[in-house]
Write a structure and sequence with these properties.
Blueprint: H1 11-45, H2 48-74, H3 79-134, H4 143-188, H5 190-200, H6 206-245, H7 250-261, H8 267-282, H9 287-314, H10 318-362, H11 367-377, H12 383-460
Length: about 450
């Protein structure tokens, strides 16, 4: 009787039921996991602002720490006095820059309001000239209407932004106060904070903690120095263009170009937009000179100076630099785009360190002996550098051992072939001797036959 007939069990139906139950359980598990992840992201999202304030405070303490150390070590100032002087100078300089920036922006906005009708007429005339130059047949782009649309959009955005200025100003000032207070505590008690963190970490991870402190200092310090140097060069170049061409709103143009240059990877082309656009609008006769000069200098900065600065500061492949920028921007917006690259650099150091340690552990060569030998040969090398050199040496030793084993195998194979060939030669020689003996016997028999034949002929004669 067939299964499933007359009330009997159906194995196929049971398998289908089990498959559907398993599928439902898997989908339900994935759905619940996604809900939990979304809830966790929302909970952690409320702490993003706090984490950002703490990070900026640490960054400020990190930037000011070398100045305090120099005052303490070189001028023998008490650490408290040095910190007070450095923070007082920083606050005075920051206040002056903010006041100067506010005054310059206010003056530029007032001037722009007064000159805007004439400026708008000049922009429209320039756009009509371009429109007539590129018009061909039915292709008649309307640059003036495009500019009008951009102007309307900019006005809406500006009006909305102005309505949020008081709230944003209060939030920024409050965050700035918290950043200053936190950074002051971090800088004043940095040794104690690091000591407590080191005590929290087990002693067997002392090398990793040391690598973390050093890699963070090198990555962030080198990255900041490289970006500030590039922004300073771009600012100087923009100021020269402003002075030579006589562009208005110089402070806004130079500031926008410098801020754009601070953005890694995408910053250099964005930094060219303010001076070139201002030149095209206010001094179009200079555009044919200014634009190529800026492009040439920017090309030199991007293709020669920036890669060398980034390589010295981060030691990363350009692909990792771009990945760090994109991941940082996705996770933390503008701040992530700015500082995602040094974070990736620190992770890259630990990744290489882990790979080199695994290489040492997987080889049959005693790793401790190799590490000690490398330390004796390079006493000034850092821990991760010693591990990297030891891993390279172990790999070279393994390659040499593999080559020796391959050569030995080839030698043994050749020896076996030679032995076989010698045996074949001996066998051939034996066969030749046997054949020679047979030939000798045949010759003896032939001689005897000849002798008997001769005797028979003699008797018959």
């Amino acid at each position: 009787m067939m299964p499933g007939v007359n009330g009997g069990p159906d194995p196929g139906q049971d398998r289908r039921d089990r498959w559907w139950r398993s599928t439902f359980i898997v989908l339900a598990t994935v759905y619940v996991a996604l809900l939990l992840i979304d809830l966790l992201v929302r909970i952690l999202g409320g702490f993003v602002q706090i984490a950002l304030i703490v990070f900026v405070a640490w960054l400020l303490a990190f930037v000011l720490s070398p100045v305090v150390t120099w005052l303490v070590d070189r001028l023998r100032w008490p650490r408290g006095v040095a910190i007070g002087v450095v923070y007082a100078g920083t606050l005075l300089l920051s206040g002056f820059l903010l006041f100067y920036a506010a005054a310059s922006i206010g003056a530029s906005m007032e001037q722009a309001t007064e000159d805007y009708p004439a400026t708008r007429a000049g922009i429209e005339n320039t756009l009509r000239t371009w429109q007539a130059a590129v018009s061909f047949g039915r292709l008649e782009p309307n640059f003036v209407s495009l500019y009008a649309g951009l102007e309307e959009t900019g006005a809406r955005i500006g009006t909305s932004a102005l309505g949020e200025v008081p709230e944003v100003t209060v939030a920024v000032l409050g965050s700035l106060v918290l950043v200053i207070i936190l950074s002051l505590y971090m800088l004043a008690d940095s040794a104690g904070i690091l000591a407590k963190l080191n005590r929290v970490v087990p002693s067997r991870y002392a090398d990793e903690v040391e690598i973390l402190e050093r890699s963070v200092s090198k990555a962030f310090g080198g990255f900041l120095r490289a970006q500030v140097l590039l922004a300073a060069i771009q600012t100087l170049l923009t100021v020269v263009v402003i002075l030579i061409v006589g562009l208005p709103y110089g402070f806004i143009i130079a500031t926008a170009s410098a801020l754009a240059m601070l953005i890694p990877f995408f910053g250099p082309p964005l930094a060219l937009i303010p001076p070139i656009v201002a030149t095209v609008i206010f001094a179009p006769e200079w555009a044919i000179i200014v634009a190529p000069v800026l492009l040439v200098v920017q090309t030199i900065l991007v293709n020669y100076l920036q890669p060398r600065l980034m390589r010295e500061a981060l030691g990363m492949h350009p692909i990792l630099v771009l990945v760090g920028l994109l991941v940082g921007a996705q996770v933390a917006g503008v701040w992530g785009a700015l500082f995602g690259i040094p974070v990736i650099a620190v992770l890259n150091v630990f990744f290489n360190y882990a790979i080199n340690l695994r290489t040492l552990e997987e080889t049959g060569i005693p790793a401790d002996e190799v590490l000690e030998q490398v330390r004796r040969e390079a006493p000034d090398a850092e821990t991760e550098e010693v591990v990297a050199l030891a891993a390279d040496r172990v790999e070279e030793s393994e390659e040499a051992l593999d080559a020796a084993q391959a050569a030995s195998a080839v030698t043994e194979a050749v020896s076996d072939d030679l032995r076989i060939a010698a045996g074949d030669l001996r066998a051939a020689a034996d066969e030749q001797r046997t054949a020679a003996g047979e030939i000798g016997e045949s010759a003896s028999g032939l001689r005897e036959a000849v002798d008997r034949l001769s005797e028979e002929r003699g008797e018959g004669g």
